UniProtKB/TrEMBL annotation:
Belongs to the peptidase A1 family. Keywords: Aspartyl protease, Hydrolase, Protease, Signal. The keyword Hydrolase applies. InterPro entries: Aspartic_peptidase_A1 (IPR001461), Aspartic_peptidase_AS (IPR001969), CND41-like (IPR033873), PEPTIDASE_A1 (IPR033121), Peptidase_aspartic_dom_sf (IPR021109), TAXi_C (IPR032799), TAXi_N (IPR032861). This is Peptidase A1 domain-containing protein. Residues 1-26 form the signal peptide. PANTHER family: ASPARTYL PROTEASE AED1, ASPARTYL PROTEASES. PROSITE patterns: ASP_PROTEASE (PS00141), PEPTIDASE_A1 (PS51767). Residues 147-487 form the Peptidase A1 domain. The lineage of its organism: Eukaryota, Viridiplantae, Streptophyta, Embryophyta, Tracheophyta.
C-alpha cells in the first residue's frame, strides 16, 4: 500500500514537472496556444487581440520572423491588415472603420459573390448566363478586402499598396492624370507619362477582348488613340474605369514582370480603404497568377496574421513540398465560375464531435475559398449545428450581445486564459484542417468576442471559406497542380 502511494505521488510529481515544462515550452514557442489537447485550444486572451503597435518592421522582408515563408518560395511580400497598426494607410488616415461597418461590407461582398455564381437550379435553364453576361450590380467587392501588399509599378517604379484578392482577376491602380476622378489614396498616384515602360493596348487587340469575361463588361475604345478601355464595377458605388495597359511590375526589388497587363484607372470611386487599387489573384487568364505563369508556375501561398498588429506574407512560386501542408483538390463544382477557387467541404468537427451534417448539405451549393470575405458563410443547417456545438463548449463564459450577422458572442473581459472548442474542417480527399483559435473568433473587443461564422440565406447558396478562418494557416494555391494546401502554424 505505501509503495503504491509513493509510486502514484512520484508519478504526480513527474507529471507536474513534465506538464509545466511542456507549457513553458509551448508559451515560448508560439505565445498563441498555451496548451492544446485534440479537442480544445487553451489560449491567452491577449493573443487574440491586436496590440497598438505593429509587431514587426514591415520594410524589407528579411527582418521578419517567419521561418516557413522562405522554404523554397521565390518571392515573398509582407501582408498587413487594412485596419491595423502595420498598415501605413491606417497611420495616415486614422479613420477607424467600425466593426459593424466592416461586417456590413462583408455582407455586400457575399451578395456580390452570390450574384456572380448562379445557383444550381437556375443554371439548367440559363447555362449561358455566366459571369460573361452577368453584370456585377449588387455588392461591394472591395470594401471588405482586408489585406494589402506593396508592389512597384513602372520605370522608375512607384510603390503601391494593393489589396490582394483571390476572388477577382483584373489588377488595377489609380492613374494620373485622374481624367475623371481619383479617390484619396495614401501612396503617390502612379503616373504613366513618367514611366518609360508603359504602353497602351489598342482596342482591336485580342488582349482587350479578354476583358469581357474578366470584368463582366465589354471593353470600350478611345476615339482618337484607339486605346482599350476597361470598366469594372464592384457595387453600388465602387468602380474603376480607365486604360487597359502594359507596364513593368516590380513584385520585389529584384523580381520584375515586363508587359504586365493592368488597368490604369482614370475614373475611380469607392471604398478601397486608401489603397492604390487591387491585385487580382483569381483564375481568369488576365489574373496575376496566369500572367506570371512562366515565372511563378501558377503557384502562390499566403498566411494571414492572427491579429492586425502582426504581419503575414504572400509568396509567389512553388513551395517546396513540405510535410505539414495537406492538399485538397480544387473542386470542379460550378460554384467556382471563372474567377473563384472551388473546394469541397465534407464535414466539420467541433470540440471533438463531428457535426451531424449530411455531405449533401455542402455539395448542394458548392464552396469556394476567398481571401476577401471576412466571415465564413455556411449552409444554414450546417451553421446551426456548428453554433450549438460551439455554444455548448463555451457555456461557462458569459454571453454578450450579437454584432451584425454574428449571433454568438461572449464577454471575456474577466479572463486571461480561455478554453475554446477546436473547430476542424474536413475537405475533399479526407484532408482535415484545425482552425486556429484566432480563426474561430471575430474580436470586436474583450467584451464582445464573437464566433466568426454566419449562415447563408439558404442551403443552395455557395459556401464561402473566409479570411478569419484562414488566419495563421499557410494557404497554398497550386493552380497548375489543381490543388489547395493548408499548413497549420504558417505565421503568428
Ligand atoms: C495612351 O492613350 C491615352 C488615351 O488616348 C493617351 O492620352 C496616352 O498618351 C497614350 N499613351 C501612350 C504611351 O501611348
Amino acid at each position: 500500500m505505501p509503495s503504491l502511494l509513493l509510486a502514484s505521488s512520484l508519478i504526480c510529481v513527474f507529471l507536474f514537472f513534465f506538464c509545466s515544462l511542456e507549457k513553458g515550452f509551448a508559451l515560448q514557442r508560439t505565445s498563441v496556444d498555451v496548451d492544446d489537447d485534440s479537442h480544445q485550444h487553451v489560449v491567452l486572451l491577449t493573443s487574440l487581440l491586436p496590440s497598438p503597435t505593429c509587431s514587426s518592421s514591415i520594410k524589407g522582408s528579411k527582418r521578419i520572423d517567419r521561418p516557413w515563408a522562405f522554404k523554397g518560395m521565390k518571392t515573398t511580400l509582407d501582408v498587413v491588415h487594412k485596419h491595423g497598426p502595420c498598415s501605413k494607410q491606417n497611420k495616415a488616415k486614422r479613420t477607424q472603420t467600425s466593426h459593424s461597418e466592416i461586417l456590413n461590407l462583408d455582407i455586400e461582398r457575399v451578395k456580390y459573390i452570390h450574384s456572380k455564381i448562379p445557383k444550381k437550379s437556375e443554371e439548367l435553364g440559363l447555362k449561358q448566363l455566366d459571369s460573361t453576361t452577368l453584370p456585377a450590380k449588387s455588392g461591394s467587392l472591395i470594401g471588405s478586402g482586408n489585406y494589402f501588399v506593396v508592389v512597384g509599378l513602372g520605370t522608375p517604379k512607384t510603390e503601391l499598396s494593393l489589396i490582394f484578392d483571390t476572388g477577382s482577376d483584373l489588377t488595377w491602380t489609380q492613374c494620373e492624370p485622374c481624367a475623371k476622378s481619383c479617390y484619396k489614396q495614401q501612396d503617390q498616384i502612379y503616373d504613366p507619362s513618367k514611366s518609360s515602360s508603359y504602353s497602351n493596348i489598342t482596342c482591336t487587340s485580342s488582349l482587350c477582348t479578354q476583358l469581357s469575361t474578366a470584368t463582366g463588361n465589354d471593353p470600350g475604345c478611345a476615339s482618337t488613340s484607339k486605346a482599350c478601355i476597361y470598366g469594372i464595377q464592384y457595387g453600388d458605388s465602387s468602380f474603376s474605369v480607365g486604360f487597359f495597359s502594359h507596364e513593368r511590375l516590380s513584385v520585389t526589388d529584384t523580381d520584375t514582370v515586363d508587359n504586365f497587363l493592368f488597368g490604369c484607372g482614370q475614373n475611380n470611386q469607392g471604398l478601397f480603404g486608401g489603397s492604390a487599387g487591387l491585385i487580382g489573384l483569381g483564375r481568369h487568364p488576365i489574373s496575376f497568377v496566369q500572367q506570371t505563369a512562366a515565372k511563378y508556375h501558377k503557384t502562390f501561398s499566403y498566411c494571414l496574421p492572427s491579429t492586425a498588429s502582426n504581419v503575414g506574407y504572400l509568396s509567389f512560386g512553388a513551395a517546396r513540398a513540405s510535410s505539414y501542408v495537406k492538399y485538397t483538390p480544387f473542386s470542379s463544382n460550378s460554384a467556382a465560375g471563372t474567377s473563384f477557387y472551388g473546394l469541397d467541404i465534407t464535414g466539420i468537427t467541433v470540440g471533438g464531435t463531428k457535426l451531424p451534417i449530411s455531405s449533401s448539405t455542402f455539395s448542394t451549393g458548392g464552396a469556394i475559398i476567398d481571401s476577401g470575405t471576412v466571415i465564413t458563410r455556411l449552409p444554414p443547417t450546417a451553421y446551426s449545428a456548428l453554433r450549438s456545438a460551439f455554444r455548448q463548449g463555451m457555456s461557462k463564459y458569459p454571453p454578450a450581445s450579437s454584432l451584425s450577422i454574428l449571433d454568438t458572442c461572449y464577454d471575456l473581459s474577466g479572463y486571461k486564459i480561455i478554453t475554446v472548442p477546436k473547430i476542424i474542417f474536413e475537405f475533399g480527399g479526407g484532408v482535415t484542417v484545425d482552425l486556429a483559435a484566432a480563426g474561430s473568433f471575430y474580436v470586436a473587443s474583450v467584451k464582445q468576442v464573437c464566433l466568426a461564422f454566419a449562415p447563408n440565406g439558404d442551403d443552395s447558396d455557395v459556401t464561402i471559406f473566409g479570411n478569419v478562418q484562414q488566419k495563421t494557416l499557410q494557404v497554398v494555391y497550386d493552380v497548375g497542380g489543381g490543388k489547395l494546401g493548408f499548413g497549420v502554424g504558417g505565421c503568428k
